[in-house]
Design brief:
Structural class: mainly alpha
Strand content: under 5%
Number of helices: 15
Distance between the termini: 12 Å
Low-confidence stretches: 46-67
Order of helices and strands: HHHHHHHHHHHHHHH
Number of strands: 0
Mean pLDDT: 76
Shape: globular
Length: 356
């Protein structure tokens, strides 16, 4: 097992390297790099400028675009040097990889702060959303899926399936808007705040008051995140249990006189949960990163998802690659943890016999 874990951890290094190199080449080819962004700001352009302004920014970041006409060439050269585009692409790539090996993600082009500090500043928001959404999803979905499997075809199974299908069909951002309209003073009641993680008077609250205020602000965004993953995991759990209940070992266990709870939770659950555990890495990645962007935007939460999107739009490359590095590393580690969870549920799985 230790040999397998060591091998997987070592494989993370070339995987990160390949992903960073590929994305570096793709991003460098994208029009409107940071040099053009800076020149456009100096000339008074905005992101909404139509016509020739946006077309002028389509040139390569390493060269001088048409939008630079009218500016002092020395100023343009200084801007190019400031963002590191006075060097060839391969030198910029090598410098970035060397710095990343030292966990130095550089400084944001437009935020004026180190990328590491920005990530640490935004991380609590994304972790709060991700952990609460994942925890609530699993606490509800697994018991509900088990009960649906036990009472398969009953009235309870039918109406819960209907509710689950409706929840699955509704996008998270649309559900978030519905929650705001109903519960955040949109048209009906005003029970919950519509934005932010804490209130303005958070610092003056007592310890338990701060906890209550924080949880109060988390209700709506976490509920919006839970709706999609909740439906998928419930159906997965139900189908896994139905598949295991029909197997011969369950019939044998019942024939031996074991209680139904002993059969379900002592035998069936261990095997059925393997499929559920297999979906944990993907579920966590989606909740932490893919699903949080729109939720952070709608509820005005300043997290990593929102920051990475804004960085991609403004071509803030240090922030883009810093968050990409974090997302990739987190995803690879979560997949490793998911594999190790298999052995806790089923000791018969032996990863030491695997070659990769």
């Amino acid at each position: 097992m230790l040999h397998y874990i060591s091998r997987r951890l070592l494989l993370i290094i070339p995987t990160l390297l390949c992903i960073l190199v590929v994305n570096f080449l793709i991003v460098q080819a994208a029009p409107g790099g940071p040099v053009e962004q800076a020149i456009a700001r100096l000339q008074g352009f905005s992101g909404a400028t139509a016509g020739g302004g946006s077309r002028d920014m389509g040139a390569s970041s390493s060269g001088v675009s048409r939008s630079s006409r009218g500016l002092d060439p020395a100023l343009i050269e200084e801007i190019t040097k400031h963002y590191g585009f006075d060097k060839p692409m391969h030198e910029r790539l090598w410098l970035m990889l060397k710095n990343y090996a030292q966990l130095d993600f550089g400084t944001s082009f437009f935020r004026g702060a180190k990328v590491t500090d920005l990530i640490l500043q935004k991380l609590p928001v994304s972790i709060s959303l991700g952990l609460w959404a994942t925890l609530i999803t699993y606490l509800i979905s697994i018991p509900l899926g088990i009960r649906k499997a036990i009472h398969n075809g009953s009235a309870f199974d039918v109406w819960t399936s209907t509710a689950i299908i409706i929840g699955y069909a509704m996008p998270a951002f649309l559900f978030a808007i519905l929650l705001i309209v109903v519960f955040a003073g949109g048209s009906y009641v005003s029970w919950f705040p519509v934005q932010g993680m804490v209130s303005e008077n958070f610092d003056s609250l007592s310890f338990f008051g701060k906890i209550g205020d924080y949880l109060w602000h988390m209700v709506l965004p976490v509920s919006a995140l839970v709706i999609g993953g909740f439906a998928t995991l419930t159906i997965l759990t139900k189908n896994s249990f139905l598949n295991e209940i029909s197997r011969q070992y369950v019939v044998t266990a019942r024939a031996k006189g074991l209680t139904e709870s002993r059969v379900l939770y002592g035998h069936v659950m261990r095997n059925a949960m393997l499929l559920v555990v297999a979906g944990i890495p993907q579920a966590l990645i989606e909740v932490f990163f893919a699903g949080s962007l729109l939720i952070e935007t709608i509820f005005n939460l300043d997290g990593i998802g929102r920051m990475s999107y804004e960085a991609a739009v403004s071509r803030d490359y240090p922030v883009v690659f810093g968050t990409l590095f974090l997302f990739t590393l987190f995803g690879l580690l979560i997949k490793l943890i998911g594999d190790l969870c298999y052995t806790l549920l089923d000791p018969r799985i032996d990863f030491s016999a695997r070659t990769a």
